[in-house]
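Changelog note: in this version the structure field was regenerated for every chain. One regenerated record is shown below for reference.
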Amino acid sequence: MSLTNYLGTALVVAPVLTGLTAFLPGTTRNQGRVSLAGSALTFVLSTAVALQVFTAGPLAEWGNALRVDALGAYLILLTGLLTTLAAFYTPAYLETEVRHGLVAARSLRRYYLWFHLFVGTMFWALTANNLGMMWAAVEATTLASAFAVGFYGKPHSLEAAWKYMIICSVGLAFALLGTAVTYAAALNAPGVAEGALAWSDLVAVTGRLNPSLMKLAFGLVLVGYGTKAGLAPMHTWLPDAHSQAPSPISATLSGVLLAVAVQAILRFYVLVNGAVGPGFAGKLLVGFGLLSMATAVPFTAVQRDLKRLLAYSSIEHMGIVALGIGLGGPYGLFGALYHLFFHGIGKGLLFFSAGQVTQAYGTRYMSRIRGAQKVAPVAGLGLFLGTLAITGTPPFALFLSEFSVAAAAFSSGRTWIGLLFLAIVAVIFGAFLYHVGHMVFGEPAGRVRLAPPARGSTSASVVIVVSLVALVAGGLFVPATVRNVVAQVGQVLGVG
């Protein structure tokens, strides 16, 4: 058979082979080239998979064990795009870390191994049709990314990696229990094959699943995968992991991994809605969404560490996604899905910019960073414009998504939710503008480590500019193709 019959399989395998090849002994330059070539191939494959799904319907391989529908394809496209941008940003970033003595050159092949294994496990989670296999894939993302989080081998980074692995594994134990309860709910349902955990089979018979067991299952799954998604109050691993990891890993964790966990929640959201109606799951998602947004407010306002500031922003934004899905309807669905995609691009932009800025100043403490637009012009501009984008300022894409979520609240008569949502967004906007404005503008203060000729590599600057262009384009244009894609994802989620 031709390669087109195994596009999904190739998508999962290609990053793994890239990581293993980059791990082989060789020069750091060649390892970087292998990483770039493998990432480019992965991007091509992810685009091909998405195009096939959106034009010809779900893709299925290996007897339906691997299956990609519109929801999976939507996030596969995001994953392919952001991880490729991260891969192109990485070589110059790591070269600077080596030059500053923060990491040994011989350790770089270990970075490339874990980065690409991490990417492969995320694609596995997005293509697994069996709920048990999906759980295993999400757990595998924890193992692969934990080594990347602890890459520097410093006490704080090792502590963050350990905390990340323990908290997420405990959380995923709840998700596993929820998966087992889902199996029990389907066990005696008419028309369900014994032992069936294939999502595509279960979604066809949701009305026959045991309603009481499905309520329990969704509660467990929401806590379990919600831990991985960074929803409060299960979010405590996230600020440490995001702040201690290398910036390209932080961008991937925030921009993609959280979305992969949200996808797992949505799979069960569809099942419980079919079994008990939309009200139950929606109320839980609204509650966790508002709690996550509110939790981010005080930590954002008093934050001193730049990367932790971005981490708490991720908690807020996952809350917005949960709120949009929970509110439901066309506005809520569009807002949540659009937000999920462009939060990934926006948070990638911010971590890429922050990586260069923190390297230039040798610190993550915001009080020591001043005049960044003069020290690192492209990164400083990216940090400021990325702040405007991620806080929902027009004309960036996240303005449209946040506006849609607010519209979903007000149009459904839940005025207090809409007002609370707008109040939280306004406070966080003010806090971000205060922190980032002081870092970007003014005269440089303190010790700056980068010599002027080495302010930023061409590849890193290109990545920052591409991310900015995508955010602006997403805010100015929503072509019919994009609306059609969101509509197809809505059909998967049961929202027309």
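Spot check on this record: The radius of gyration is 21 Å. The longest helix spans residues 155-187.
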